[in-house]
Write a structure and sequence with these properties.
The complex is a heterodimer of chains A (about 400) and B (about 325). Chain A is α/β, with parallel strands linked by helices. Chain A folds into 4 domains: about 140 residues, Rossmann fold (3-Layer(aba) Sandwich); about 50 residues, Helicase, Ruva Protein, domain 3 (Orthogonal Bundle); about 90 residues; about 70 residues, no CATH class. Helix content of chain A is about 55%, strand content about 5%. Chain A has 18 helices and 7 strands. The radius of gyration of chain A is 29 Å and the shape is flat. Chain A starts with 14 loop residues before the first helix and ends in a 10-residue tail after the last helix. By secondary structure, chain B is of the alpha/beta class. In chain B, about 45% of the residues are buried. Chain B has a 5-stranded parallel beta sheet with strand order 2-3-4-1-5. Chain B starts with a helix and ends in a 7-residue tail after the last helix. The chains are: A alpha/beta (about 400), B alpha/beta (about 325). At the A-B interface, helix 13, helix 15, helix 16 and helix 17 of A face helix 10, helix 11, helix 13 and helix 16 of B.
Chain lengths: ~400, ~325
């Protein structure tokens, strides 16, 4: 969130739209323009709200902002916007009123609110900005007539990528081009989600690789998964918990990983956690049995334990709002795969010469080789030649290992 | 590597396991070798004895007449069967009509694989003799055991180990001090290979080899920080403990069964855990161990164990700890 544009120049793309918006806003200096409100519209995350906030910052204006949850009634709107649109600010700064997430207005109940907004727009003495994803919703037809319509389009993947690069530089993260491109392409022009993804993946890292980001394919299901998880962790009955599975078309194993990752954050009491983990362990046991016997009917038990079993473990833990985390393990698995392959190939080389299985070679010989390779390169080269190791293997073994020394 | 460089090449060079070596020498004399099981702790000379036997039996031609397989790498029944078939099928020229197959880590084979092995052993007994190497002969199925001559390898004596290490140190012109030697002996627990590897690693850090250098090697070589993981769990940090577990499994490739075993050992060493809790935990540990064999996810099962440890720690602290 700290990378939200503070000035209009930092907003990604949509130069034309921003230009239009900017000149409209500046025209208020010369008097009240014909259209007292502008309607910014376009897909999510492309910079509509960001542009308003950035420009207001640039021009040192006061921003009065409301969004979907506040449009309930005519009264509510009148209360906040009615007066504000008529009178000047105490500070002397110019004021701008923003109605964000207009799509959030519900059906008939909020009609009152919508009508009041239209009134405000017709008679306002200060700039009004409306934001919505779909302005051509029939509810907005009257409103549209009084507004300057400005479309925000999706920035190209290239533009998003450049933006991400800038952030990486600011945050001191060395990111591979392919990684940034992947994030940019996946975002489909939603800059906000691209930046969030970058932040989630790159936080605290010095280097971001393509492998790190490729799990993003799952992102589309994230919102659905959160609902399912919430149902599982906070249900009060087995029935309710089990229904979570039907909420969405999810891969069971993927769901398992999410539950497993999140469980210590949502079952904080140790007894609850132990019970919850027992349930998951049972679910996993059945997964193993299914794999071994190919008896897919056992799936119902996997579901029972991972939903109802986990839900019923909640005894003492107070419900609180805790975010769900992406299964760290999946990310680590792909990363460590190459490392394990390396270990395994070195193991095979050792096995030929030392009369050991490669499995034991990895456990019983490689740790010593690491020390020899790290500290003494002459001997190491001799051994490398004898074992027929290639460059990559030598480099891998010579890499210093950071580990604490524990006296016996 | 010194462990290979100084491996005895003929039966006469083997200093310990005297009775076994005598029997093996008589096989060479008779030019006949029965199917055999070499059982015993790691690093006690089983593979060496088998290799020396082959060497003495076949002299120069031993490379073609000897085949080594191990159960960890070549897992399936079919692999063993096919390899043996191809190997054992051809008759060998010369005085000795059979070939020798060394099957290492035989106790890692599933029962099914062992059954298939038994039939293969029977079928090709004219042309191929087997030497099965394992840590526990009890894990070999009875029908195979009854067809094999048993050889029990025992831990090497302290003196044997010391002499061997001093010999290597002298040959490699490495100055090793008494306290260094002691440290190596302590950590190798009778496993000569481990002792020699430790010696070589210590030598590469710097000479002379004293206690400090050896401990430095041990510290860097022991990736299984199980004790630390248990401590984290008992003190309420499930996530920290799980992260450590994950690191062990994913990054260092430690097998879940090894972790379980280590946990089992460590739990009983922990003074802070009350006795009745140790028993409760032993039950859970046993369950985890069993489930791992059933094909369950190692990390998940072990995490459930960690959660129990967290619970134990919480109970032990009278439930007053930050949970």
């Amino acid at each position: 969130m700290k990378h939200k544009p503070k000035s209009l120049a930092e907003v990604v793309g949509n130069k034309e739209a921003i230009q239009k918006f900017d000149s409209w806003l500046k025209s208020w200096d010369r008097g009240v323009p014909k259209k007292r409100s502008t309607f910014l519209y376009g897909p999510p995350g492309v910079g509509k709200t960001a542009s308003v906030e950035a420009l207001v910052n640039d021009l040192n204006m006061e921003l009065v902002e409301r969004n979907a949850s506040d449009y309930r009634t005519a009264d509510a709107v009148q209360r906040f916007a009615g007066l504000a649109s008529q009178y000047g600010t105490l500070s002397g700064k110019k004021r701008l009123i923003l109605f964000d997430e207009l799509d959030g207005i519900a059906g008939t109940e909020d009609r009152g609110g919508l009508r009041t907004i239209t009134e405000v727009v017709k008679s306002a003495m200060c700039p009004i900005v409306l934001i919505a994803n779909d302005p051509y919703d029939p509810r907005f037809s009257t409103l549209r007539n009084h507004c300057l319509m400005i479309e925000f389009k999706r920035p190209s993947a290239g533009e998003v990528m450049r933006h991400l690069k800038k952030i990486c530089m600011r945050e001191d993260v060395a990111a591979e081009e392919s990684a940034l491109r992947f994030i940019a392409q996946r975002s489909g022009g939603d800059v906000r989600s691209a930046v969030n993804d970058l932040q989630a993946l790159g936080q605290g890292k010095e280097r971001l690789t393509y492998d790190d980001v490729s799990w993003l394919a799952f992102r589309d299901r994230k919102e659905v998964i959160f609902d399912v998880l919430r149902t599982i962790f906070y249900s009060r009955s087995c029935e309710e918990a089990k229904k979570a599975i039907d909420m969405a078309d999810l891969d069971l194993n993927m769901l398992f990983e999410w539950i497993y990752e999140s469980i210590p954050h949502h079952l904080k009491n140790p007894r609850d956690l132990a019970k919850g983990m027992d349930a998951l362990a049972l679910a996993d046991l059945y997964r193993g049995r299914i794999r071994a016997t190919q008896n897919w009917k056992l799936t119902r038990y996997v579901i029972d334990f991972m939903t109802a079993g986990v839900a019923m473990s909640r005894g003492k833990t107070e419900p609180e709002w805790v975010p769900f985390r992406f299964p760290e393990r999946i990310r680590m698995l792909s990363k460590s795969k190459s490392e394990r392959q390396m270990l395994s190939s070195i193991g095979m080389k050792i096995r030929r010469k030392c009369h050991l299985s490669s499995v034991r070679a990895v456990k019983e010989v490689i740790p010593y080789l690491r020390i020899i390779f790290e500290d003494n390169s002459e001997v190491a080269l001799g051994i490398a030649r004898w074992l027929d190791l290639d460059e990559d293997m030598i480099e891998y073994l010579a890499e210093p290992t950071k580990r604490a020394f524990i006296p016996p | 590597m010194w462990a290979e460089k100084y491996r005895p090449k003929t039966l006469d060079d083997i200093v310990n396991q005297k009775d076994i070596i005598e029997r093996l020498k008589s096989f060479v004399e008779a030019k006949n070798v029965p199917h055999s099981i070499f059982a015993g702790p790691p690093g006690t000379g089983k593979t060496t004895a088998a290799l020396c036997l082959a060497h003495d039996l076949y002299k120069e031609g031993y490379r073609e007449r000897l085949r080594e397989l191990n159960a960890s790498d070549e897992r399936g029944i079919n692999v063993v069967r096919e390899t043996v078939k191809t190997f054992a099928r051809t008759r060998s020229m010369g005085e000795i009509p059979f070939k020798l197959m060394i099957l290492d880590e035989a106790d890692n084979m599933t029962e099914d694989a062992q059954q298939a092995l038994r039939r293969t052993m029977e079928r090709f007994t004219e042309t191929c003799r087997f030497i099965l190497i394992c840590n526990y002969s009890g894990k070999i199925i009875e029908p195979i055991q009854s067809r094999c001559a048993p050889f029990r390898f025992t831990h090497l004596s302290r003196n044997d180990l010391i002499n061997r290490l001093r010999l290597i140190a002298e040959q490699e012109r490495v100055n090793i001090q008494d306290d260094g030697l002691e440290a190596i002996l302590e950590v190798s627990e009778g496993d000569l290979r481990r002792a020699i590897n430790t010696l070589q690693a210590a030598a590469s850090i710097g000479k002379p080899i004293d206690e400090e250098r050896v401990y430095s090697v041990i510290g860097r070589v022991n990736p299984v920080d199980v004790r630390e993981m248990i401590l984290l769990a008992i003190n309420g940090d499930f996530i920290g403990a799980r992260d450590k577990l994950r690191e062990m499994i994913l990054k260092y490739g430690v097998a879940g069964s090894d972790v379980v075993r280590q946990i089992h050992i460590e739990i009983f060493r922990f003074k802070e855990i009350p006795e009745r809790w140790k028993i409760k935990l032993a039950d859970v540990i046993g369950e985890v161990d069993f489930r791992l064999v059933q094909g369950a996810d190692e990390e998940v099962q072990l995490s459930a164990l960690l959660a129990r440890l967290v619970e134990a720690g919480y109970e032990m602290g009278g439930g007053a700890r930050r949970g």
